[in-house]
Amino acid sequence: MLFRDAPLFSMLNQYVSKKRISFSMPGHKGGQGMPKGFDKKLLKYDVTELADTDNLHMPKQSIKAAKKLAADFFGAQDTHFLVNGSTSGIYAMLAATANPGDTVILDRACHISAINACIILGIKPVFIFREIMGRFSIPMGINQKNLIDVLDENHDAKAILITSPSYYGIASDIETISKIARARGIPLLVDEAHGAHFAADQTLFPRTAISQGADLTVQSAHKTLNAMNQAAYLHVNSDLIDKNRLVSVLAMLQTSSPSYLIAASADIARADLAAAGKKKWQNVYNNCEELRRKISSKTKVDFISSLLNGRYNVDSVDETRIVMNFSAYKTTGFEIGERLRKEYNIDIEMADIFNVVAIATPANKASDFSRLSKAVISICEKLSESDEEPVFPPVPIPKMGITPQQAFYAKGRNIRLDEAIGRVSRSTVTAYPPAVPIICTGEIIERQSIEYIEALKKIKAELIGLNANGFISIAEI
Ligand SMILES: Cc1ncc(COP(=O)(O)O)c(C=O)c1O
Questions:
Q1: pLDDT tens track for 69-116
Q2: Cα 90 to ligand 1 centroid, rounded to whole Å
Q3: Which of 81, 82, 86 to probe ligand 1 with, by most ligand atoms within 8 A of CB?
Q4: 28 pLDDT band (50/70/90 cuts)?
Q5: Residues with CB under 6 A from ligand 1
Q6: Confidence category of residue 307, pLDDT binned at 50, 70, 90
Q7: Do 56-272 and 280-381 share a fold?
């Protein structure tokens, strides 16, 4: 990849080479003010909107050129660079399509940012339930019949927001879902935070949501591409979206001092993906296949693809998302994750009761894959096998008592979980990651949700939404 292939990055290089004396933000002045020991080279690129450097919220020069290249590559009418992650993109998609008081159809396997957006924007979410996939105990794809039923009951819905792929790399059939949405004249918004690399090769990966008719999608460049934390894209491909409103909400929801380092890294990530993505990702794919083959031949660890074969409403799976299922052993995904870290110096992305999820990208060396497979094989050698059928039943969606915003602003107090049954929750409780809600702000707390949370506590899942004593905040209404 050359500098000129990434206009935003190229502009930053030119600017840095000018060695200007700075009487502008940021305060560290190209890193000059930072203490010794802090790597200052990168800070020269940490500039702001100047006459030479364009403006992220009103791009006219290099940023406009970078946006155009990104939109062309990702197959969108327009692409916005986000410097506050997909989180800000999810807020923006909802703010661009729904007004306070409006109903939006929300995937229950949504990221917590979608619920937070409903709180801030005063949106009433109505959820689509996802069934759980066999021994993996993870959400299947969106069931189209469920979606149609929810739409039939909510004629006034202003948008549909679904997550695809999931944290586990499972993609839903966006093409059919977007036709369902279009037939009703409402936009389909897709949280594709984990699928920024799909455009590298549309025969290797699930088809991108934008290519299947989604109106707006967000992708976290930082999750799977060579980009800095917080770098993300928001793609637009629609005649149903008010594009001026989208630009306005993006400026409202993101910082007025955008990090050019983050934005340039999104530009670089796109240029890299366009130039060499196909070859690099084929390599990752091959390494993942080899890892699966090695682990499968020596252990009872299961992989998602072996279970699918067109079932479970799953359109396709990202085969570079390494989801290892340990339910054949007397252990948990959490324990395996901890052992990989402590005994083998390997950080994985996420663990849950039965699974460990590892994210592989072209930045991983071939030796990383062999270390991971060797570590898993050696851990399994010492594990006892389990003959119990793995069960961790999904928690049903509780009834909404009041809207998330009403609950958030209601007076409240913290009480013990077992005392909270029947009360309206003021917090959203999730296991982190994947930060998919168990109880949402505004929902009536049910016994099954409490039992589910207690079971998660026992297996040491990291829970958010409870206070330090494990109490839950309830609305006093
Ligand atoms: C499905 C999903 N959507 C959105 C987000 C938020 O992404 P970001 O970290 O880029 O804000 C995450 C974060 O993990 C996620 O898993």
A1: 999 999 999 999 999 999 999 999 999 999 999 999 999 999 999 999
A2: 9
A3: 86
A4: confident
A5: 85-87, 111, 113, 163, 167, 191, 193-194, 220, 232, 433-434
A6: low
A7: no
- Per-residue exposure over 318-354, b if at least 16 CB sit within 10 Å of its own CB, e if not: bbbbbbbbbbbbebbbbbbbebbeeeeebebbbbbbb
Q: How far is the CA of 195 from the centre of ligand 1 (A)?
A: 11
Domain layout of the chain by residue ranges:
56-272, 280-381, 404-475
CA of residue 168 to ligand 1 center, whole Å = 13
Q: How confident is the model at residue 1 (pLDDT cuts 50, 70, 90)?
A: low
425 CB burial (10 A radius; 0-12, 13-18, 19+): buried
Task: State the CATH architecture for 280-381.
Answer: Alpha-Beta Complex (3.90)
Neighbours of 7 (CB within 10 A): 22
Report the separation in Å between the CA atom of 87 and the middle of ligand 1, taken as the mean of its atom positions: 6
Taking only the tens place, the pLDDT of each residue in 116-127 is 999 999 999 999
Classify domain 404-475 by CATH architecture.
Alpha-Beta Complex (3.90)
What is the rounded distance in angstroms from the CA atom of residue 381 to the CA atom of residue 388? 19
